[in-house]
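User: Um, what's this?
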Amino acid sequence: MRRLHVTGRLRAVAVGALLAVGLTACGGSGAGGSGGAGTDAAAADLLVGVSMPTQTSERWIADGNAVQQQLTDAGFQVDLQFAGDDIPTQSQQVDQMITQGADLLVIAAIDGTALSSQLQAAADAGIPVISYDRLIRETPNVDFYVTFDNFQVGVAQANALLTGLGLQTEDGSPGTATGPFTIELFAGSLDDNNAFFFFDGAMSVLQPRIDDGTLVVGSGQTSIEQVAILRWQQETAQRRMEDLLTSAYNDGTRVDGVLSPYDGLSRGIITALQNTGYGTAANPMPTVTGQDAEIASVSLIAQGVQSSTVFKDTRLLAEQAVIAATAFLDGGEPQANDTTTYDNGVKVVPSYLLPVETVYADDIQSVLVDSGYWTAEEVESGQAG
């Protein structure tokens, strides 16, 4: 990892900011509380550019807002930009952040290979880069990666699918069902490195059940290239599910379960299923998994429509990004808890992985509402307040 040449002023600022982040994380007064005015005034000299991929997903809106809020609470200036799922827009926004004098960049890339020239410019200017939840690939100029344990996300989704089918219980014990069950597989966008971790994690659980005949993929489509959804688009997932129902299920075969790696895709899949007659007493909704605990999907889980979601607390991810940013601005290096897994094609990027949690209907109150992530009213309405 390249060492940064940080002035004494920046080092003092960053130490103060780290203390402020620590107070905030522990529920103290934070950067704006008692004794924080001096830190705020000094840290305000530092600019952090935050590049998020899109505002079409409430998950990324929440991430951007959480990172911005926690950096602001630590006293930093923040330039938060959303790229609208458009690669040239994100490239231009990152260019502008560098030109405008950003001291550090936090980037959730649309395409993990599309920012090489921008990252080289950042490296030339001595600007550290934190890859946020999506690994930036094929460049040496990424310094740290903050994310969740993405392989375990896939494992959790596969286990939730087996649980919904009755093949096992929520604690992993054998269930009462024996199968065979007919399922379909969906994966994320091939330009997102996480999609491969999610799919590989899920298939590590599902493939043995496919091999022994407990699970049957009705369409026969089992490779990630066959089941991937570009840009994670809900409408694309709906169209694919509609096509599958027309081509592989026109003989009356029932879909029992769908592996979906993201709540937005899940809602598109569910719409296609409902439009084909699923979701009635005579033809119940298949087990459909998800990820990100988006409020519309949490509401569907509460209603018994979607089966589960994997909750990734973006507040904790934002907190870790701020801790890593502060370490860099202090002239040091963030603490990694994984230094072997995330090879971006040029180097293994030091990473900090956060845990994930599966949420079923009976977990919504304890995991999402009691923690303040969503309110009971939001769950009931399916809309963020």
Remarks:
- The chain has two domains: 8-142+313-354, 150-312+359-381.
- Residues 193-211 form the longest helix (19 residues).
- Residues 1-41 have pLDDT under 50 and may be disordered.
